[in-house]
């Protein structure tokens, strides 16, 4: 899960590559590097750490005359973060340079064989074998060497290569990991994601799975593995460049928390037009097939899994359909019982999470219908599924997912309404009632976000605590799981999240005088049960921080602190109740001086197993 960029064209490219990498830093920031062609020689600059380290290395070393180059920002898989393991990697002669995103699964055997043939390795990485394989296969034709290298390697990857004898050429290949071409005026950009070149061009060509490409300043060719040229249309991307900037907020995460009302508006827009209709154009699964679905199976990882857990309650409640839920990395190695009447829903913000993709592919092999819920157009999940519901949250840069999570929950609400409609589980009036409540949530949230002082004040009181317990029931359970994940990933404070009724079966032993316990206690049919659990917490002298519905003054008697959220119906309540938990985690992490946008050891897109 790294970010790669490449450029060929008439402009000095070092700063273009550097700027591109800055936009891809969310994909990994263990190390970064560039290679550029200068006076017929490939010059490589690499640094351990994030892009600030590379910036230091590049000072006074701008290679202004370079017109061809590669760049890479790394999330370490094979080989620790070090300068030697940073990309780009070179062959023995130093004439070839490569950058790779992904994993070469058979690298150990290849490396052994190449070493036996006399190749000298300079790193511990799997990626370096690609540079040496290209060297081995190169006899004057870079594309052919790339093609033969592709045939030798197994795994999932995207890579780009340059050769000092081809000063105007980038060649590369893709298997499962993303690779996009930006077509400029007499210049070509290549990258793992569009933001890397969005400020330079909006014309994009997608390199498909198991395809090769070769780019020169005025042309890009996409080819199959036999080097047959494939027709590929240029897509114009309408994203706003500013969307990738912080827009006045101190961090991307904060900006994205505050963008949640817009993310909800956009995700719902046009999909609930009235008359009990639910319009999901990209779903592509006919209504009559949906009507016959007897089980929904949700697979996802991390925050997306928590959105899926909301789906379990909502789908059962509204659509009266059986729902199962599993973590994708577990599902893919089980023997799930699926049939053509099962709808498998893969939820992935990035659409590139390896485990979720594998789970979706397994479901396809077992003849289930597969639906992707993702934020990224053209991502692998969209190609592996029968249909898609796009969340329309816009680009999310903060590694901790926030606005995409809310948009995922809204997408699940839409799916549940759609199934309820085709199955006749809800009538027109019921659907319209829910639709108008859902449409009202963004305004409620906008109002709520105008005053976040409660979360900030509570953070100040508790940020030095060594441990937080989160409790919830019903739709409050996924909310508390998500709140606990947010806190641990950005502040590094250990957390546990439990179904409140389970607390007495073990976690209660963790409680001590003053231990902070965050309880999701919004209005709903299990509210009284949650209050009983709060009593159990208080009996151990622990400190209760409740998330409650506005107007519930009674909860103050049971709580040390309360974060109120706007009133909505129970099934919609996660859309509001998760927000104070995002803010609490955010303020605690800020008070602890943590880098909330780039938490240690994490990456935005997890394209490895
Ligand atoms: O791109 P995906 O939604 O598939 O990513 C899944 C998880 O990696 C992701 O949600 C992760 O848990 C985030 N760090 C959460 O903030």
Overview of this protein structure:
With 609 residues, this protein is α/β, with parallel strands linked by helices. It folds into 3 domains: 3-245, Glutamine Phosphoribosylpyrophosphate, subunit 1, domain 1 (4-Layer Sandwich), CATH 3.60.20.10; 255-443, Glucose-6-phosphate isomerase like protein, domain 1 (Rossmann fold), CATH 3.40.50.10490; 453-591, Rossmann fold (3-Layer(aba) Sandwich). It is built from 18 helices and 25 strands. Strands 3-2-4-1-10-9-11-15 form an 8-stranded antiparallel β-sheet, covered by helices on one side. Strand 21 (468-472), helix 16 and strand 22 form a beta-alpha-beta unit. Helix 4 crosses helix 5, helix 7 runs antiparallel to helix 14 (428-449) and helix 16 (476-491) runs parallel beside helix 18. 56% of the residues are buried. Bound molecules: 5-amino-5-deoxy-1-O-phosphono-D-mannitol (M6R). Residues 301-304, 348-350, 353, 356, 399-401, 489, 602, 605-606 line the site of 5-amino-5-deoxy-1-O-phosphono-D-mannitol.
Keyword list:
eight-stranded antiparallel beta sheet; 3 domains; alpha/beta; Glutamine Phosphoribosylpyrophosphate, subunit 1, domain 1; 34% helix; single chain; binds 5-amino-5-deoxy-1-O-phosphono-D-mannitol; Rossmann fold
């Amino acid at each position: 899960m790294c970010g790669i960029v490449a450029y060929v064209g008439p402009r000095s490219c070092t700063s273009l590559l550097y700027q591109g990498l800055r936009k891809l830093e969310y994909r990994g920031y263990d190390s970064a590097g560039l290679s550029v062609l200068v006076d017929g020689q490939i010059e490589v600059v690499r640094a351990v750490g994030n892009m600030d380290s590379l910036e230091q290395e590049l000072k006074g070393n701008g290679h202004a005359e370079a017109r061809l180059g590669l760049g890479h920002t790394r999330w370490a898989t094979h080989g620790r973060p070090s300068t030697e393991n940073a990309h780009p990697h070179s062959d023995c002669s130093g004439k070839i340079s490569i950058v790779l995103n992904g994993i070469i699964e058979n690298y150990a055997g290849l490396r052994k064989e190449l070493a036996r043939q006399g190749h000298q390795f300079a790193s511990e990485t799997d990626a370096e074998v690609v540079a040496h394989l290209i060297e081995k296969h190169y006899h004057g034709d870079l594309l052919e060497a790339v093609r033969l290298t592709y045939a030798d390697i197994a795994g999932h990857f995207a890579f780009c290569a340059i050769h000092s004898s081809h000063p105007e050429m980038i060649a590369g290949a893709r298997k499962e990991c993303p690779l996009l071409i930006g077509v400029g005026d007499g210049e070509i950009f290549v990258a793992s994601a569009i933001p890397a070149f969005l400020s330079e061009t909006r014309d994009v060509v997608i390199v498909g799975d198991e395809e090769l490409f070769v780019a020169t300043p005025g042309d890009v060719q996409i080819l199959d593995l036999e080097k047959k040229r494939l027709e590929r249309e240029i897509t114009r991307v309408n994203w706003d460049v500013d969307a990738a900037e912080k827009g006045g907020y101190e961090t991307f995460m904060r900006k994205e928390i505050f963008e949640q009302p817009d993310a909800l508006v956009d995700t719902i827009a046009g999909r609930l037009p009235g008359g009990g209709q639910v319009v999901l154009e990209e779903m592509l699964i006919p209504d009559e097939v949906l009507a016959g679905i007897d089980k929904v199976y949700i697979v996802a990882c991390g925050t997306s899994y928590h959105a899926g857990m909301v789906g379990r309650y909502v789908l059962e409640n509204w659509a009266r359909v059986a729902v199962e839920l599993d973590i994708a990395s577990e599902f893919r190695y089980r023997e799930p019982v699926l049939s053509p009447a099962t709808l498998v829903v893969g939820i992935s913000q990035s659409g590139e999470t390896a485990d979720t993709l594998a789970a979706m592919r397994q479901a396809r092999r077992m003849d289930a219908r597969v639906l992707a819920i993702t934020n990224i157009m053209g991502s692998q999940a969209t190609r592996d599924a029968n249909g898609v519901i796009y969340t329309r949250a816009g680009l999310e840069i903060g590694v901790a997912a926030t606005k995409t999570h809310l948009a995922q929950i809204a997408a699940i609400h839409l799916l549940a309404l759609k199934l309820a409609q085709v199955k006749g589980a809800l009538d027109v009036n019921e659907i319209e009632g829910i639709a108008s409540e859902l449409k009202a949530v963004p305004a409620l949230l906008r109002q709520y976000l105008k005053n976040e002082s409660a979360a900030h004040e509570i953070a100040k009181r508790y940020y030095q605590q060594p441990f937080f317990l989160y409790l919830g029931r019903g739709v409050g359970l996924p909310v508390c799981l998500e709140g606990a994940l947010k806190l641990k990933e950005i502040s590094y404070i250990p957390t546990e999240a439990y179904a409140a009724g389970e607390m007495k079966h073990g976690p209660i032993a963790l409680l001590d005088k003053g231990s902070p316990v965050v309880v999701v206690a919004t209005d709903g049919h299990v509210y009284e049960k949650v209050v009983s659990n709060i009593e159990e917490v208080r009996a151990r002298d622990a400190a209760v921080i409740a998330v409650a519905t506005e107007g519930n003054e009674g909860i103050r008697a049971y709580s040390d602190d309360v974060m109120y959220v706007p009133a909505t119906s129970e099934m919609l309540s996660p859309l509001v109740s998760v927000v104070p938990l995002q803010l609490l985690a955010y303020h605690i992490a800020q008070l602890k001086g943590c880098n909330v946008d780039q938490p240690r050891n994490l990456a935005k897109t997890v394209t490895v197993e």
